[in-house]
Amino acid sequence: MSTGRFTPEALPGGSQTAARRDGPLPRALVAVVSNLVEQYSGLSLGGVHGRGLEQGIRRRIQATGTAGIREYLALLQSHQTDELQRLIEAVTNPETTFFRNRAHFRSLREVVLPSLAVTDAPVCLWSAGCSTGEEPYSLAIACLDAGLTHGGRPVSILATDISRLALDAARRGEYSERRLQHLPPSLRARYFERRGERWRVRDEVRALVTFLRHNLIEPDLPAPAGTVDVLFCQNVLIYFRPELVGRIAARLATALRDGGYLYPGFSETAWYRVPTLESVRLGDCFLYRKVPAAADREAPAVEPEPRPPIRRPDSAALPRAVTLPSPPAPRAGDALAEAERAVAAEPLSSEAWERLGLLCRQARRTGEAESAFRRLLYLRPDSPLAHFHLGALFRETGRAAEARREYAKAERLLRALPPGAPLGGVTAGLLLDACRRALSQTGE
To answer: Are residues 162 and 277 in the same domain?
Structure first.
């Protein structure tokens, strides 16, 4: 990749004195770094991600022993690919844990995997943006624990990431105690082995996972279209410009088979506006299910191809407490009706109003969604989630000033929380990033 030569001295603040390690980083030079990263990867690390980018630059300046940002820019120019990879790693790969979003994995274990267990058909799961491997190994453990591999059924987990460094760590499969904090002791004993102060993923888990380097902006899919049963893509789209997000979402939908599930990040649920994806609720989480394209649904009836033979597995081959195939997941309309019944039964439940607001928003019932989130704020005035979703509603309906007001309130509340604080399946830090991105896009 050729990006041309830069001359830091020609930029404001380009002197080494102005760019010393302990001083503020000149915006013009940070912008040069941001442009280099975006040209290389498509990732937009400026704007609302600017603080994270500056922190990443400082860490890489220290790690490389360079004297300041001017010298670091020269290093990027001379060893661009390797060092850009390390910088991207420093900015976009926060530490994660196994089974991080417990609501997602609960729905996977209780509904999705049992529905896949009733035939002998191969099963494919894709972890897009797999980072250092905790998510794809969690998916593999869930499949093994559900008995999906019994009887020789092919099960594969595809794990992709843009960072070679993250993929190298994922392939090693060794983790600290902290990364396993959400893992039940029984699963730790069965699927990990102690290696000094660290834990190594056992070979039966590793055998299910294939790691590949892949950038989501690339036109080619890492798996054949229509073959993925379950796709996890969480807190990845926040790093791309809005004009790219729609194309990436459509490409991800193409990878799914009809009836396959896509698990988005909490702050990304409204970004998958793709005709072939329908919003569904499974347990306590919201996700998307692939439906046939309109042309396919309206095509003349033809004799269907024979389906794979149905088998009735022994109870030991199914997850505990599951003996029959699970019924189809509820459609968005069914979930809405259930949420409306919940708020009628418990009108003082903030959780019920939050769930209703999310469902109404996904169903494009804007007025009802706004009412639900306002009721949520009446019950829980310090809820950053309520302010964030109201801001999103106002932004989508052209009410920019009101959107900025709500996003600003959410940002203020989120700044007071530790970055790693959990908020309904996402961390406060990630929601803060999404909030700042939205603020930058709504303008003054």
So the answer is: yes
Q: Which amino acid is at 60?
A: R
pLDDT digits (tens, 9 = 90+) for 336-359: 888 888 877 777 777 888 888 878
CB 64 within 8 A of CB 72: yes
In this structure, are 72 and 49 located in the same domain?
Answer: yes
Asked if residue 311 belongs to a domain, the reply is no
Q: Would the CA dihedral through 409, 424, 232, 195 be positive or negative?
A: positive
The Cα 58–Cα 69 span in angstroms is 8
Nearest to 251 by CA among 268, 228, 281, 280: 228
Give the C-alpha distances (Å, rounded to integers) separating 290 from 256, 262, 272: 7, 8, 11
pLDDT in tens, 210-255: 999 999 988 899 999 999 999 999 888 878 877 888 899 999 999 9
Tokens of 29: 């030079």
Task: Taking each helix axis as running N to C, give the angle between helix 50-64 and helix 27-41, from 0 to 180 degrees, rounded to the nearest 10.
Answer: 90
Q: Which amino acid is at 21?
A: R
The pair of structure tokens assigned to 322 is 């599951």
* In a shared domain, residues 149 and 223: yes
| H or E stretch at 143 | helix 134-145
Same domain, 87 and 168: no
Whether residues 248 and 347 fall in one domain = no
Looking at the whole model, is its pTM more than 0.70? no
> 26 and 145, same structural domain?
no
Q: Is the CB of residue 57 less than 8 Å from the CB of residue 87?
A: yes
Q: Which amino acid, one-letter code, is at 79? A: H
